[in-house]
From TrEMBL, chain A:
InterPro entries recorded: Aldolase_TIM (IPR013785), GltB (IPR024188), GltB_archl_type (IPR043578), Glu_synthdom (IPR002932)
Name of the protein described by the UniProt record: N-methylglutamate synthase subunit C
GO function term, MF aspect, one: glutamate synthase activity
The keyword DNA damage is assigned to this record: no
Organism for this UniProt entry: Salipiger aestuarii
Keyword terms, alphabetized: Oxidoreductase
GO biological process: glutamate biosynthetic process
Coiled coil: none
Biased composition (Low complexity): 109-120
From TrEMBL, chain B:
Protein name: Glutamate synthase domain-containing protein 3
InterPro entries per record: Glu_synth_asu_C_sf (IPR036485), Glu_synth_lsu_3 (IPR012061)
Organism: Salipiger aestuarii
Source lineage: Bacteria, Pseudomonadati, Pseudomonadota, Alphaproteobacteria, Rhodobacterales
Molecular-function GO terms, alphabetical: oxidoreductase activity
């Protein structure tokens, strides 16, 4: 036996096993990795902020006894019929095609029970979601799949999608496995082909054109519907300012942790800005234009808890939107499917091949047998419960800060645990009065 | 505002020197609940979004030229523009007919699902982009990137087509009588069969075009980009 001390095998941080596996996969297949979801890398997030709570200078509200309102009205700028929501949490746009019909129905059921809205996606409006969504936002996307004036008129709001956080500047691809007869029919495409979604709109370019496009949409819908503009987290100050200029009633700002049905992993992980870094520049743009609270700001991308909701509102958002978390509430990535996840080469919590249509939970699929696994009534009830918990948690934190409405939360209620988060959220590093970038350093 | 809407015999006159765009469109959109079926819009002055969101079997004559999105999302109505139109004429049209006596700017008939768009002059770039079932007949020429990602329907061009015709085409049919500067990715010339001559003859007749179907060439999708193939990566 050789008892000479040995050097420990050392893995490279640069060329980790994960990195090497991807190099081997790329060398074998010749194509980049496509997946669903948002950025998985660690970025500064709401976890890096804390509420200060009440103290000598602030007094709290009694939990469960003193009111803490949660209602929000979206679309007060131009629309004659703004949307009234009971809670400041909405369901983000997710397409039929990417999601199954029962999943869309469950989203509608859950959102309606909780008093909030849900949103269509690329591929048009289905009866499942219209029928079960008390408030439905109709997305107006570059592909215009299924777009028609009748559905525009029966929507409660219209969301012009300029970008999304997972892929600002990118289009989409729905693989042929999910282009069933119904999906193909709604999109005017042959069955079974890989369906591409364009990265920009076919009939306008830039904010000046968009202003005219919004005029057209308002004329078609008699100026009734709130018009949202959804932007990916890229240059939030200027993107928000230009959205206001273009005539938005509501701006939806999606950070890089926001999910997508399918895009290149390299895009998801390397393009865009963390949600935390987007909010303050966006709010500053609104304030500079005198439009804060007049044009409502909805923030999305990585919202998971009532604390995330409360922190987003404290930084100046009017509401938040959830996508991935809503799918998890429905049953996505549930440990009860672990055996099947392993058969697909993944594990609970990591399953992200939503585009392949083999989702064991029956949510991101068009396979009839898999779809049947999701009971839309039961899943809708779970989503309702989850939305209620988010709201209760948000109220708890707001009361602790002495707020009678969740919109009264403010940046002064927050501190940051890291310098990065302090810089992005523009709140002091905990234990100091230092906000990076303020006061000359 | 009723006093500013003039009725002359059976034609209702909508004068944009006297009434705002909202009143023009609201009047046209209310048409199913009135006895009027014919309308004339005067003094358009290049306004945007004229005669959008119509859903009735009415006839609208737009006297003059318009800005963006004239007759957008039209359903069932016939809209006749005596001048030229800005970008996105008849965008996302579902049914009905739109006739333009002059020229059309870019994106004519974009994403439209049905109906007939006739442009008697020329159409600029991206004519028929993402079209989903509309029939478009252009008496003159069309610009570059026309029929980009066109999914369904027919685009007929009596003149010439610019660069990259039919790039990333799906199942739309393209008929061009003149020259094509270049074809886009996955767009190829295809055999003109009897069924296509019949389609073309019908469209030419409906569009009032004096041309022989036999003088056209047909272009369509090679369908090589329907499934991602790394060996075709240069085409994407």
């Amino acid at each position: 036996m050789n008892d000479t001390p040995q050097t420990m095998p050392r893995q490279s941080w640069t060329f980790s096993n994960e990195v090497n596996a991807e190099i081997r996969r790329a060398a074998h297949t010749g194509i980049y990795d496509i997946r669903g979801g948002g950025a998985k890398r660690r970025v500064p997030h709401f976890d890096d902020l804390l509420f200060l709570g009440a103290s000598m200078s602030r007094y709290p509200l009694e939990g469960y006894r003193e009111k803490c309102e949660t209602g929000v009205t979206l679309g007060t700028r131009f629309a004659s019929k703004p949307i009234e929501l009971k809670i400041p949490i909405t369901i983000a746009g997710m397409s039929f095609g990417s999601l199954s019909g029962p999943a869309k129905e469950a989203l509608g059921r859950g959102a309606s029970l909780a008093g909030t809205s849900t949103t269509t996606g690329d591929g048009g409006m289905t009866e499942e979601e219209r029928g079960h969504s008390e408030k439905l936002v109709y997305q107006y996307l570059p592909s215009r799949y299924g777009m028609n004036p009748d559905d525009l008129r029966r929507a409660d709001a219209i969301e012009v999608v300029v970008g999304q956080g997972a892929k600002p500047g990118g289009g989409g691809m729905l693989l042929g496995q999910k282009i069933t007869e119904r999906v193909a029919g709604m999109r005017d495409l042959p069955i079974g082909i890989d369906q591409r979604s364009a990265c920009r709109h076919p009939d306008w370019t830039g904010p000046d054109d968009l202003e005219i496009k919004i005029l057209e949409l308002r004329e078609i819908t008699s100026w009734e519907k709130p018009i949202y503009i959804k932007i990916g987290g890229a240059r939030p100050y200027y993107d928000v300012a230009l959205s206001v200029k273009a005539g938005a009633d509501v701006i939806v700002l999606d950070g890089m942790q926001g999910g997508t049905a399918a895009t290149q992993d390299v895009f998801i992980e390397n393009v865009g800005t963390p949600t935390l870094a987007c909010i303050r520049p966006a709010v500053r743009a609104l304030q500079d234009l005198g439009m804060h609270r007049k044009v409502q700001l909805v923030v999305s991308g990585g919202i998971r808890t009532g604390a995330d909701v409360a922190k987003a509102l404290a930084l100046g958002a009017d509401a938040v939107s959830i996508g991935t978390a809503a799918l998890v509430a429905l049953g996505d990535n549930d440990p009860k499917w672990e055996q099947e996840y392993r058969a697909l080469g993944t594990t609970t919590g990591a399953y992200d091949d939503w585009h392949e249509g083999r989702d064991p939970a029956g949510i991101t699929t068009q396979d009839p047998d898999l779809m049947a696994r999701l009971d839309p009534v039961e899943a809708g009830r779970r989503l309702r419960n989850y939305l209620n918990v988010l709201t209760l948690e948000c109220q708890t934190l707001a009361r602790a800060c002495g707020k009678s409405h969740v919109h009264n939360l403010e940046p002064e209620d927050l501190v940051a645990l890291t310098i990065e988060a302090a810089a992005m959220a523009q709140v002091p590093l905990a234990g100091t009065d230092w906000i990076p970038g303020k006061g000359g350093f | 505002m009723i006093a500013t809407v003039q009725a002359v015999s059976d034609v209702q006159i909508l004068d944009m020197e006297q009434i705002e765009l909202r009143e023009v469109n609201a009047t046209l959109q209310r048409a199913p609940s009135t006895n009027y079926t014919q309308f004339e819009i005067l003094n358009t002055r290049g306004s945007h979004a004229i005669a959008v969101g119509l859903d009735a079997e009415i006839e609208v004559i737009v006297k003059g030229s318009t800005g963006y999105y004239c007759a957008g999302m039209n359903q069932r109505a016939t809209v006749h523009v005596t001048g030229s139109v800005g970008p996105g004429v008849a965008e996302n049209m579902m049914s009905g007919t739109v006739i333009v006596d002059g020229d059309a700017s870019q994106y004519a008939g974009a994403t439209a699902h049905g109906g007939l768009l006739v442009i008697k002059g020329n159409a600029s770039s991206r004519c028929g982009i993402s079209m989903k079932g509309i029939d478009i007949v252009v008496h003159g020429n069309i610009g570059h990137m026309s029929a980009f990602m066109a999914q369904k329907g027919n685009l007929v061009v009596l003149g010439d087509a610019g660069d990259a015709l039919g790039d990333s085409l799906y199942e739309a049919r393209l008929f061009v009588r003149g020259s094509v500067k270049s074809l886009g990715a996955d767009c190829i010339e295809k055999e003109m069969r009897a069924e296509h001559l019949d389609i073309l003859a019908d469209l030419l007749a409906r569009a009032g075009a004096d041309a022989k179907p036999q003088d056209f060439k047909r272009y369509g999708s090679a369908r090589k980009l329907y499934h991602f193939n790394v060996d075709h990566a240069d085409a994407y």
